[in-house]
Amino acid sequence: MKGVHRKEARAGRRLTLRIFRHVPCVPENQPRIDTFPLDETPGMTLFLALTRIREEQDPALNFDCVCRAGVCGSCGMVINGRPGLACRTLTADLPETITLFPLPWFELMADLSVDTGQWMRGLTERLEAWVHLAEEPSLDAQETPMEPELAEQIYELDRCIECGCCIAACGTAMMHKDFVGAVGLLKMARLRLDPRDVRSDAEYYDVVGDAGGVFGCMTFLGCQDVCPKGLPLQTQIAFLRRQMVHHSFNP
Ligand code: SF4
Ligand code: SF4
Ligand code: FES
Protein backbone atom coordinates (compact mmCIF):
# COMPACT_ATOMS: atom_id res chain seq x y z
CA MET A 1 0.00 0.00 0.00
CA LYS A 2 2.83 2.33 0.90
CA GLY A 3 4.26 2.08 -2.64
CA VAL A 4 0.84 2.83 -4.19
CA HIS A 5 0.49 6.00 -2.13
CA ARG A 6 3.99 7.10 -3.04
CA LYS A 7 3.34 6.59 -6.76
CA GLU A 8 -0.05 8.34 -6.60
CA ALA A 9 1.50 11.26 -4.75
CA ARG A 10 4.15 11.57 -7.42
CA ALA A 11 1.77 11.41 -10.41
CA GLY A 12 1.60 14.72 -12.21
CA ARG A 13 5.30 15.52 -12.00
CA ARG A 14 7.00 17.23 -14.91
CA LEU A 15 9.89 14.95 -15.84
CA THR A 16 13.03 15.87 -17.73
CA LEU A 17 14.56 13.06 -19.76
CA ARG A 18 18.16 13.54 -20.83
CA ILE A 19 18.84 10.99 -23.55
CA PHE A 20 22.09 10.03 -25.26
CA ARG A 21 21.84 10.38 -29.03
CA HIS A 22 24.19 9.00 -31.63
CA VAL A 23 23.77 7.09 -34.86
CA PRO A 24 27.24 5.71 -35.64
CA CYS A 25 26.40 4.66 -39.21
CA VAL A 26 25.75 8.31 -40.16
CA PRO A 27 29.23 9.85 -40.61
CA GLU A 28 28.30 13.43 -39.68
CA ASN A 29 26.26 12.40 -36.63
CA GLN A 30 28.05 13.41 -33.41
CA PRO A 31 27.22 12.04 -29.93
CA ARG A 32 25.10 14.44 -27.89
CA ILE A 33 22.51 14.56 -25.11
CA ASP A 34 18.98 15.68 -25.99
CA THR A 35 16.58 16.89 -23.31
CA PHE A 36 12.84 16.18 -23.40
CA PRO A 37 10.20 17.45 -20.96
CA LEU A 38 7.38 14.99 -20.24
CA ASP A 39 4.31 14.97 -17.99
CA GLU A 40 4.37 11.88 -15.80
CA THR A 41 1.25 9.72 -15.71
CA PRO A 42 0.35 7.17 -13.00
CA GLY A 43 2.06 3.82 -13.49
CA MET A 44 4.31 5.20 -16.23
CA THR A 45 7.26 2.98 -17.14
CA LEU A 46 10.37 4.20 -18.92
CA PHE A 47 9.19 2.26 -21.96
CA LEU A 48 5.97 4.31 -21.97
CA ALA A 49 7.89 7.54 -21.42
CA LEU A 50 10.19 6.81 -24.37
CA THR A 51 7.27 5.79 -26.57
CA ARG A 52 5.48 9.05 -25.81
CA ILE A 53 8.60 11.07 -26.56
CA ARG A 54 8.94 9.25 -29.86
CA GLU A 55 5.28 9.75 -30.73
CA GLU A 56 4.95 13.36 -29.58
CA GLN A 57 8.38 14.96 -29.78
CA ASP A 58 10.98 13.07 -31.80
CA PRO A 59 10.06 10.22 -34.18
CA ALA A 60 13.77 9.59 -34.82
CA LEU A 61 14.49 8.42 -31.25
CA ASN A 62 15.86 4.86 -31.26
CA PHE A 63 15.36 2.36 -28.44
CA ASP A 64 14.48 -1.34 -28.28
CA CYS A 65 11.41 -2.82 -26.65
CA VAL A 66 9.60 -5.96 -27.72
CA CYS A 67 7.71 -7.75 -24.95
CA ARG A 68 7.15 -4.87 -22.48
CA ALA A 69 7.06 -7.51 -19.76
CA GLY A 70 10.66 -8.18 -18.71
CA VAL A 71 10.89 -11.30 -20.86
CA CYS A 72 12.65 -10.53 -24.17
CA GLY A 73 15.68 -8.76 -22.67
CA SER A 74 15.83 -6.12 -25.42
CA CYS A 75 15.21 -2.91 -23.44
CA GLY A 76 18.34 -2.85 -21.24
CA MET A 77 19.84 0.63 -20.84
CA VAL A 78 21.73 2.67 -18.26
CA ILE A 79 19.14 4.49 -16.17
CA ASN A 80 20.60 7.25 -13.99
CA GLY A 81 23.90 5.38 -13.98
CA ARG A 82 22.50 1.91 -13.32
CA PRO A 83 21.79 -0.79 -15.92
CA GLY A 84 18.14 -1.88 -15.95
CA LEU A 85 15.14 -2.69 -18.12
CA ALA A 86 13.09 0.23 -19.45
CA CYS A 87 9.89 -1.80 -19.44
CA ARG A 88 10.26 -2.79 -15.77
CA THR A 89 11.30 0.61 -14.44
CA LEU A 90 8.62 2.93 -13.13
CA THR A 91 9.36 6.61 -13.54
CA ALA A 92 7.83 7.05 -10.07
CA ASP A 93 10.85 5.24 -8.66
CA LEU A 94 13.21 7.78 -10.25
CA PRO A 95 13.89 11.47 -9.60
CA GLU A 96 12.37 14.10 -11.89
CA THR A 97 15.50 14.21 -14.01
CA ILE A 98 16.22 10.92 -15.71
CA THR A 99 19.40 10.37 -17.70
CA LEU A 100 19.53 7.49 -20.16
CA PHE A 101 22.55 5.99 -21.89
CA PRO A 102 22.86 2.83 -23.99
CA LEU A 103 24.43 -0.21 -22.31
CA PRO A 104 28.21 0.08 -22.61
CA TRP A 105 30.31 -2.70 -24.09
CA PHE A 106 27.83 -3.83 -26.75
CA GLU A 107 27.88 -2.45 -30.28
CA LEU A 108 25.88 0.76 -30.45
CA MET A 109 23.25 0.66 -33.17
CA ALA A 110 21.60 4.04 -32.55
CA ASP A 111 20.80 6.19 -29.48
CA LEU A 112 19.69 3.71 -26.77
CA SER A 113 19.71 0.65 -29.02
CA VAL A 114 22.64 -1.78 -28.77
CA ASP A 115 23.29 -5.15 -30.36
CA THR A 116 23.35 -7.59 -27.45
CA GLY A 117 22.29 -10.46 -29.72
CA GLN A 118 25.56 -10.67 -31.64
CA TRP A 119 27.59 -10.71 -28.42
CA MET A 120 25.35 -13.31 -26.78
CA ARG A 121 25.54 -15.53 -29.84
CA GLY A 122 29.35 -15.30 -29.87
CA LEU A 123 29.35 -16.18 -26.15
CA THR A 124 27.12 -19.21 -26.67
CA GLU A 125 29.31 -20.45 -29.53
CA ARG A 126 32.53 -19.87 -27.62
CA LEU A 127 31.31 -21.70 -24.51
CA GLU A 128 29.35 -24.26 -26.53
CA ALA A 129 26.60 -23.38 -24.11
CA TRP A 130 24.18 -26.11 -25.02
CA VAL A 131 23.59 -29.60 -23.61
CA HIS A 132 26.21 -32.00 -24.99
CA LEU A 133 24.38 -35.31 -25.26
CA ALA A 134 26.02 -38.75 -25.29
CA GLU A 135 24.29 -39.56 -28.56
CA GLU A 136 22.19 -37.89 -31.23
CA PRO A 137 18.69 -37.18 -29.88
CA SER A 138 15.90 -39.23 -31.39
CA LEU A 139 12.40 -37.82 -31.81
CA ASP A 140 11.01 -41.33 -31.25
CA ALA A 141 12.76 -41.85 -27.91
CA GLN A 142 10.78 -41.47 -24.71
CA GLU A 143 11.55 -38.44 -22.56
CA THR A 144 14.11 -39.13 -19.87
CA PRO A 145 12.60 -38.39 -16.44
CA MET A 146 14.39 -35.90 -14.21
CA GLU A 147 14.00 -35.40 -10.46
CA PRO A 148 11.54 -32.49 -10.02
CA GLU A 149 13.89 -30.78 -7.57
CA LEU A 150 16.73 -30.82 -10.08
CA ALA A 151 14.44 -29.74 -12.92
CA GLU A 152 13.37 -26.81 -10.70
CA GLN A 153 16.99 -25.80 -10.06
CA ILE A 154 17.76 -25.89 -13.79
CA TYR A 155 14.59 -23.98 -14.62
CA GLU A 156 15.57 -21.29 -12.10
CA LEU A 157 18.86 -20.66 -13.93
CA ASP A 158 17.19 -20.83 -17.35
CA ARG A 159 15.30 -17.63 -16.47
CA CYS A 160 18.17 -15.49 -17.81
CA ILE A 161 16.81 -13.23 -20.56
CA GLU A 162 20.24 -12.26 -21.95
CA CYS A 163 19.53 -8.57 -21.39
CA GLY A 164 23.22 -7.70 -20.92
CA CYS A 165 22.68 -5.68 -17.71
CA CYS A 166 25.15 -7.86 -15.77
CA ILE A 167 27.84 -7.24 -18.38
CA ALA A 168 27.20 -3.49 -18.32
CA ALA A 169 27.62 -3.49 -14.51
CA CYS A 170 30.78 -5.60 -14.50
CA GLY A 171 34.16 -3.93 -13.97
CA THR A 172 36.01 -7.01 -15.21
CA ALA A 173 34.04 -7.09 -18.47
CA MET A 174 34.88 -3.41 -19.06
CA MET A 175 38.61 -4.10 -18.66
CA HIS A 176 38.87 -7.55 -20.17
CA LYS A 177 37.18 -7.99 -23.51
CA ASP A 178 37.35 -11.81 -23.38
CA PHE A 179 35.58 -12.09 -20.02
CA VAL A 180 32.39 -14.15 -20.35
CA GLY A 181 30.62 -12.23 -17.58
CA ALA A 182 28.00 -13.42 -15.14
CA VAL A 183 25.70 -14.40 -18.00
CA GLY A 184 28.36 -16.76 -19.42
CA LEU A 185 29.23 -18.23 -16.04
CA LEU A 186 25.55 -18.71 -15.27
CA LYS A 187 25.04 -20.59 -18.54
CA MET A 188 27.89 -22.94 -17.65
CA ALA A 189 26.67 -23.43 -14.07
CA ARG A 190 23.25 -24.33 -15.48
CA LEU A 191 24.76 -26.90 -17.88
CA ARG A 192 26.98 -28.28 -15.10
CA LEU A 193 23.80 -29.13 -13.18
CA ASP A 194 22.26 -30.95 -16.14
CA PRO A 195 22.85 -34.73 -15.95
CA ARG A 196 22.35 -35.01 -19.73
CA ASP A 197 25.47 -32.91 -20.39
CA VAL A 198 28.34 -35.39 -20.77
CA ARG A 199 31.23 -32.92 -20.71
CA SER A 200 33.98 -33.72 -18.22
CA ASP A 201 35.44 -31.35 -15.63
CA ALA A 202 38.49 -31.00 -17.90
CA GLU A 203 36.28 -29.87 -20.78
CA TYR A 204 34.55 -27.30 -18.58
CA TYR A 205 37.93 -26.16 -17.32
CA ASP A 206 39.05 -25.61 -20.91
CA VAL A 207 36.29 -23.07 -21.51
CA VAL A 208 35.90 -21.30 -18.16
CA GLY A 209 39.01 -22.21 -16.13
CA ASP A 210 40.96 -19.02 -16.91
CA ALA A 211 40.89 -15.24 -16.52
CA GLY A 212 38.24 -15.01 -19.23
CA GLY A 213 36.06 -17.26 -17.07
CA VAL A 214 35.64 -17.92 -13.34
CA PHE A 215 39.14 -16.77 -12.36
CA GLY A 216 38.64 -13.33 -13.91
CA CYS A 217 35.62 -12.52 -11.76
CA MET A 218 36.50 -10.14 -8.91
CA THR A 219 33.31 -10.99 -6.98
CA PHE A 220 32.22 -7.37 -6.49
CA LEU A 221 28.73 -8.55 -7.49
CA GLY A 222 27.59 -5.57 -9.55
CA CYS A 223 26.02 -8.24 -11.74
CA GLN A 224 23.80 -9.61 -9.00
CA ASP A 225 22.80 -6.09 -7.87
CA VAL A 226 21.38 -5.20 -11.29
CA CYS A 227 20.09 -8.52 -12.68
CA PRO A 228 16.41 -7.76 -13.39
CA LYS A 229 15.48 -11.43 -12.99
CA GLY A 230 17.03 -11.64 -9.52
CA LEU A 231 19.18 -14.60 -10.54
CA PRO A 232 21.51 -16.04 -7.88
CA LEU A 233 24.67 -15.03 -9.73
CA GLN A 234 26.86 -14.88 -6.62
CA THR A 235 26.02 -18.47 -5.64
CA GLN A 236 26.42 -19.81 -9.16
CA ILE A 237 29.76 -18.11 -9.81
CA ALA A 238 31.03 -19.44 -6.47
CA PHE A 239 29.71 -22.93 -7.33
CA LEU A 240 31.49 -22.98 -10.68
CA ARG A 241 34.68 -21.54 -9.23
CA ARG A 242 34.78 -24.20 -6.49
CA GLN A 243 34.39 -26.91 -9.10
CA MET A 244 37.11 -25.49 -11.32
CA VAL A 245 39.51 -25.01 -8.38
CA HIS A 246 38.84 -28.60 -7.35
CA HIS A 247 39.61 -29.74 -10.89
CA SER A 248 42.82 -27.70 -11.07
CA PHE A 249 44.12 -29.51 -7.95
CA ASN A 250 42.76 -32.91 -9.03
CA PRO A 251 43.06 -32.98 -12.83
S1 SF4 B 1 22.14 -12.91 -15.75
FE1 SF4 B 1 20.53 -11.37 -15.34
S2 SF4 B 1 21.46 -9.42 -15.93
FE2 SF4 B 1 22.69 -11.04 -16.86
S3 SF4 B 1 21.88 -11.30 -18.92
FE3 SF4 B 1 20.82 -12.80 -17.58
S4 SF4 B 1 18.98 -11.76 -16.89
FE4 SF4 B 1 20.30 -10.17 -17.73
S1 SF4 C 1 30.94 -10.54 -9.52
FE1 SF4 C 1 32.22 -11.12 -11.27
S2 SF4 C 1 30.80 -11.30 -13.01
FE2 SF4 C 1 29.71 -10.16 -11.36
S3 SF4 C 1 30.09 -7.98 -11.80
FE3 SF4 C 1 31.72 -8.63 -10.42
S4 SF4 C 1 33.45 -9.27 -11.73
FE4 SF4 C 1 31.57 -9.18 -13.02
S1 FES D 1 10.74 -5.00 -23.62
FE1 FES D 1 11.21 -7.13 -23.30
S2 FES D 1 12.40 -7.06 -21.47
FE2 FES D 1 11.77 -5.01 -21.74
List the helices and strands and how they pair.
Elements: H1 2-10, E1 14-21, E2 32-39, H2 46-56, E3 76-79, E4 82-85, E5 97-101, E6 107-110, E7 113-115, H3 116-127, H4 148-157, H5 165-168, H6 171-175, H7 181-193, H8 201-208, H9 222-226, H10 233-249
Parallel strand pairs: 1-5
Antiparallel strand pairs: 1-2, 3-4, 3-5, 6-7
The structure holds iron/sulfur cluster (2 copies) and FE2/S2 (inorganic) cluster.
Report on the architecture of this protein:
There is one protein chain. By secondary structure, the protein is α+β, with helices and mostly antiparallel strands. It folds into two domains: 113 residues, Beta-grasp domain (Ubiquitin-like (UB roll), Roll); 122 residues, Fumarate Reductase Iron-sulfur Protein, Chain B, domain 2. It has ten helices and seven strands. The protein has a five-stranded mixed sheet with strand order 2-1-5-3-4. α4 runs antiparallel to α7 and α7 packs across α10. The N terminus is likely disordered. Bound molecules: iron/sulfur cluster (2 copies) and FE2/S2 (inorganic) cluster (FES). The site of one iron/sulfur cluster has 13 residues, from α5 and α7.
CATH class of the largest domain: Mainly Alpha
Number of discrete helical segments? 10
Assign the CATH topology of the largest domain: Fumarate Reductase Iron-sulfur Protein, Chain B, domain 2
The radius of gyration over CA amounts to 21 Å
Low-confidence stretches: 1-5
- What's the pLDDT, averaged over the residues? 92
Q: N-to-C SSE series?
A: HEEHEEEEEHHHHHHHH
**Cα-to-Cα separation, first versus last residue:** 56 Å
Percent helix, as a range, is 25-40%
| Ligand roster | iron/sulfur cluster, FE2/S2 (inorganic) cluster
CATH superfamily of the largest domain: Alpha-helical ferredoxin
In the CATH hierarchy, the architecture of the largest domain is Orthogonal Bundle
Shape type: elongated
Structural class: alpha+beta
Strand arrangement, largest sheet? Answer: 2-1-5-3-4
Number of strands: 7
Largest sheet: 5 strands, mixed
Number of domains: 2
What amount of the residues lies in strands? 5-15%
